[in-house]
UniProtKB/TrEMBL annotation:
Single Gene Ontology MF annotation: metal ion binding
EC number: 3.5.1.19
A UniProt-annotated Pfam family: Isochorismatase
The protein, known as: Nicotinamidase
Protein family (similarity comment): Belongs to the isochorismatase family.
Pathway where it operates: Cofactor biosynthesis; nicotinate biosynthesis; nicotinate from nicotinamide: step 1/1
Example GO biological process: pyridine nucleotide biosynthetic process
Isochorismatase-like domain residues: 3-200
Sorted UniProt keywords: Hydrolase, Metal-binding, Pyridine nucleotide biosynthesis
Source species: Salinibacter ruber (strain DSM 13855 / M31)
The protein's enzyme class: hydrolase
Length: 206
């Protein structure tokens, strides 16, 4: 059984937001068209407390986009974004959230970032998504949303590791592209057995 997973299509990741992904908003019509066609739709929502460890503002000696070493490895320091309860954390106003059966929040632990929909960035703290999908008999995921090279990639690769068939809908995702991270993300996804599909082809399958 298939599900569409819409990753972090929130105001702060769209132009005008705190951590804007170039053209992030342009995917909304395509995502809505997909959500209307899939039998099961799930969304993630980046949902950080103020003062989150991933925010550069929590590290006085650092600037946004610096990379530091934390307990669980490298951490990119981001501008404050998707703070719980703020406008920036809301979904893009044109995104149709009605079809979504589950909205999974992540990144709410102050000391740990969470790019993947399956595991926090320590690689061991589960979000519960694997169990939810398995119990519901979902074995194939179609990913779209933001950002290709962070939350979409980490979710896609973890999805493969958890044993799901994973497709990324190429024209329904956009990347941050920090120091070549976008090309590297496509390589990593390819190596993990993630398949790339167009929205047109995905709509035919749905
Ligand atoms: C994301 C950076 C920080 C994403 C979330 O949704 O890709 N990127 N938090
Ligand atoms: Zn975040």
């Amino acid at each position: 059984m298939d599900a569409l997973l819409i990753v972090d299509l929130q105001n702060d990741f769209c132009p005008g937001g705190a951590l804007a992904v170039p053209e992030g908003d342009t995917i909304v019509p395509t995502v809505n068209a997909m959500a209307a066609r899939f039998d099961h739709v799930i969304q993630t929502q980046d949902w950080h407390p103020a003062g989150h460890q991933s925010f550069a503002s929590s590290h006085p000696d650092h600037a946004p986009m610096d990379v530091i070493e934390v307990d669980y490895g490298e951490q990119v320091l981001w501008p404050d974004h998707c703070v719980q309860g703020t406008e920036g954390a809301e979904f893009h106003p044109d995104l149709d959230t009605a079809p979504s059966e589950l909205i999974l929040r992540k990144g709410f632990r102050p000391g740990i970032d969470s790019y993947s929909a399956f595991y926090e960035n320590d690689g061991t703290t589960p979000t519960g998504l694997t169990g939810y999908l398995r119990e519901r008999g979902i074995d194939t995921l179609y990913l779209c949303g933001l950002a290709t090279d962070f939350c979409v990639k980490w979710s896609a690769v973890d999805g493969r590791e958890e044993g799901f068939d994973v497709y990324v809908i190429e024209d329904a995702t956009r990347g941050i592209d920090q120091d070549g991270s976008l090309a590297q993300a496509w390589d990593e996804m390819n190596e993990a057995g993630v398949q790339v599909i167009s929205s047109e082809a995905a709509l035919d399958l749905a």
